[in-house]
Model the fold of this input.
Amino acid sequence: MKRHKLHTAITCALTSMALCTLSPIALAQEDAEETTKKAEAKDLERIAVVGARGAPRSVTSSPVPVDVLSAEDMEAVAFTDMNNVLMTLVPSYSLSRQPISDGGTFVRPATLRGLPTDKTLVLVNSKRRHRAALVQIGGSGTQGPDLATIPTSAIGSVEVLRDGAAAQYGSDAIAGVINFQLKNNSDGGSLTADYGTYFEGDGDQITVTANKGLALGDDGFISISAEYSDSEATFRGEQYCESWFCVNDQSAEYIAAAEAMANDVHGSDQVQPWGQPNTSGARLFVNSGYTLSSGIELYAFANYSESEGDGSFFYRYPGNGTIEDIRLEDGSIWNPIEIFPGGFTPRFFGDVTDYSFVGGVKGVVGALDYDISGRYGSNEISYTLKNTINPSMGNTSPTSFKPGDLINEETQFQADFTYDLSSYVLAFGVSYLDESYEITEGEVDSYFAGPYATSDPWAFCNDDYSATSAGLAVIANGSSLNCANYTSADSDGDGIEDDGFEGVDAVYTVVGVGSNGFPGYSPEFSDTYSRDSYAVYADISGDITDEVFAQAAIRYEDYSDFGSELVYKVAGIYQMTEEIALRSSFGTGFRAPTPGQQGTTNVSTRLPNGFPVATGLFPAGGDVAQALGANELDPEKSTNFTLGLTANYGDMTLTIDYYNIKLEDRVNSVSTMDVSTTEVTDPDASGYQAYQNYLALAGAGVVGAESIGGVFFFQNAFDTVTEGIDVVATYNVETTYGATTLTGSLNYNTNEFDSDPSEFFNDEDQFDFENGTPEVRGVLSLKHSYEDWMIVGRLNYYGEYENSNDSSLETIQKFGSEFLFDLEGSYYINESLTLSVGVRNLFDNYPDKGTMGETCCGRIYRSDSIVDWQGGYYYTRLAAKF
Done:
C-alpha cells in the first residue's frame, strides 16, 4: 500500500495529475493522518515536502521542479487577483499592467519561464481550464485561461510544475503546468474582508471572500466559495504635453473644456489617464464529491463569474487625423470639436462572463484506477465604447457604440486510467476536445464606412480642381469651398513643386472608419472558428533501483486543422545520498495555434511615431493578410531539457534547476507594416512598400483602407531558445521565541533567437524581444510566528533591462534594478478571528521613468513594465473562520 501511494503521488504531481483522485499535497496529508510510523514519515517527506506552515515549497524528490503553494501562502499575499498572487510567490511567473491594450486591459497577459501563458497549461482539480475569449493583439497573440476568474477563497493549494509536460497533458504544456486544487471541506468555513488604498490616495480596493463547507450525507461534501471585488482607478501620469500638442498651451477655454471632459469620463484632470483601470467582479466556485457504497466516487465542480472594467485610449486632440475639418453636404465646415470642445479620450468598457462545469466518476477495480469525466467551459467578452465618434459619419455620428463580442467555448470528454504493476505505475487514457471561437458582429455604426471615408464625398470638385455644378451651388449659398486649394507640393506628379496651393480644402479630408479607438466587427470579419481533436497517451513510472526513480511518457494528438503529432518525455532522479539528489528530464512538445489566434481581427489606434495611426490586425489565413504576404499558421514545436539538484539538510531544503526550451516556428505578430495612399511607383523609393500595402488592402476589399496607417498579422515568425535557472531554498527554525520560515527564490531567464527573424521583425523589435524584460527576478520572504502574533516580510527584486526607441538602435534606455518590500502583521484575536495590517511596496519605489518617445502622451513610466509602477499600498484585513 505504501509503494502504491508513493508511485501514485509522484505520478500525480509530475506526470498524470489528471488521473489522480487527490493532489500530492492531499495524498501527503492523508498519509500523515493515517500513520505515525517512521518509515511512512520518511516516504511522506520524499513525495510531498510541500509547504503549508513552513514546509518547503518544492518537492525535493521529484524528477522535475514542482512548487506547491498552500491556502495559507496565498492568504499572506496582499493581492486578490490570482495573477498577482502567483507573480508574488513564483519568481519565474511574470505579469505586466497595460492600461491601453484593448482587451488586454481586462484580461492581463503573463509569462512563465519567459514564455507567454498560452505555453502554460492551466488545470483546476487536475482538469484542463478553458481559455479566455481574448486574444492579445500583440506579441505572441496569447490566448490562455483568465486566472482572475478563480477566487483565492476557493483554492486549497496550487501546484506549479515548471517543466515541459506536453507528453502528459497535451498542447499548451510547453513551459509548464499550473494546477489549482479546490477546497473539499465538508464543514466549517471562512469569511474575509479586505480594504486598502495607495499612498497616492487613489485606487481604493475592497474584497470580500467567503467559503462554506457542507456535508452531503455521510459520504459527500459540497464546498461553496464566493468573492466580490471592486478596485478604483489610479492615476500615475501627467497632463498631455508633447511637442506636437500641449494641452497647457491652449486657450483657457480649451483647457477648461479638456479638463471637464477628463473629469466626466474618468475622474481626473489629466486628459490621458495612466494607471490601473476601474474593475469589479463577483465570482462563485462550487466543488463537490460523493462516495457510493461500492467505493465509486461521483464528483462535480463548477464556476460562474461576472466582471467588468473600463479604461481609456489615447487622447484625440485637434488636427491629429481624427478631429479634422470636413465639408458637409450643404457645403459648410464641421469639426468634431463641436461635440467635444476639449478634444476627447475614447473610453473602453469590457464585461467578462465566465462559467464552466466539470463532472465525472472515479473508482478502483482491482489494481486499476479509473476516472471518466466531461467538461464544458465558456468565456465571453462584451465590449462597449463611449466618448468617441465614427469620424466617417461626420455630424451624424453617435458617441457610444457596441463593437461586438468575443466568445470562446470548449467541450471535452476524457477517460484516464492507472494500473498498479507493483514496482511501477502505468497510466494511460484518451481524450476528445471540441473548441470554438466566435466573433459576433457589432452595431452597424461601429464599423460603418460613412461618406467622409473618401475624398470629396459629395462630388463638389472636378479632377482639374474646378467646382462641379453641385460645388457651384453650395458656393452660391455662401460656402467657402475652394476646390483649387488642394493637394501636395507636387500636384501633377512631374517632380516639380507647384505654386499657388496654400492649403487643403476640407472637401478632400479623409477620416477614419468605425468607432474611433476600436472599430466594430463587420460582417466580413465576424465568424465562428472551430475545430476538434483527440488524443491517446501512456505513461509509466517507478523505482528502477532504490536510488533511481524514472518515468517515461508518450502522447499522440490529432487535430482537425493541423493534423497529428507524436511527443514524448523521459525524466528521472538519482538519490546520491540521503540528502542530495540529481534530476533531469528531456521531452518534446507541440502547441496548436488556437482557433482564436487563427481568426481574430482588430483595428485599433497605435502611436508608432507619437502620432495616432489606425493599425489593423488580420487573420493569417484570410484574404487580407494573404494579400500582404502572410502564410497560414502552423503548430509550434518544442524541445525541453532540465538538469537539477535537490538537497535536504534537516531544516533546510534547496533545489537548483537549469532549463533549456527550444521553440520552433514560434507564433508572433510581425512588426507593423506601414500603409500609405500616397502613390509611389519607384520600387527603390521610400514609401513604395507602404503604397503597395495600401493597394493590397484595397484589393482585398477592406472597408476604410484609406484611413489605415499600419497592418500586421500573426506568423510562425522565428525559432527561439529560452534558457535559465530556478533556485528555491527554505530554512525553518523553532526557538522559544517562536517559529520562523525563511524562503528565497531566484529565477534567471534569457530569450534568444535561434533563427533569422529579420523577415518578420525589424531591428527595434528584435532588440526589445531579447532585452526588454529583466533577466533576474528574486523573492526573499520571512514568516515569524510567536504566540498570538505573526509577521510576514517579503522582498521582491527585479533585475536590469533595456529598451530601444526605434530601429536605428541609436537611443537605448537602460532600466535599473528595483527592490519592492512588503510587510504584514497579524494578530489572532481568538481561535476564529484574525486581524491583519500590511503595506505593499513599503518604501514607495517606482521603476525608472521613461526617457524616450515611447513614454509619451502624459505617461511617466513604461506602461508595460513588469515592475509595478503604482507605488505603495496599505491595507487591513479581517478574517473569520468557523
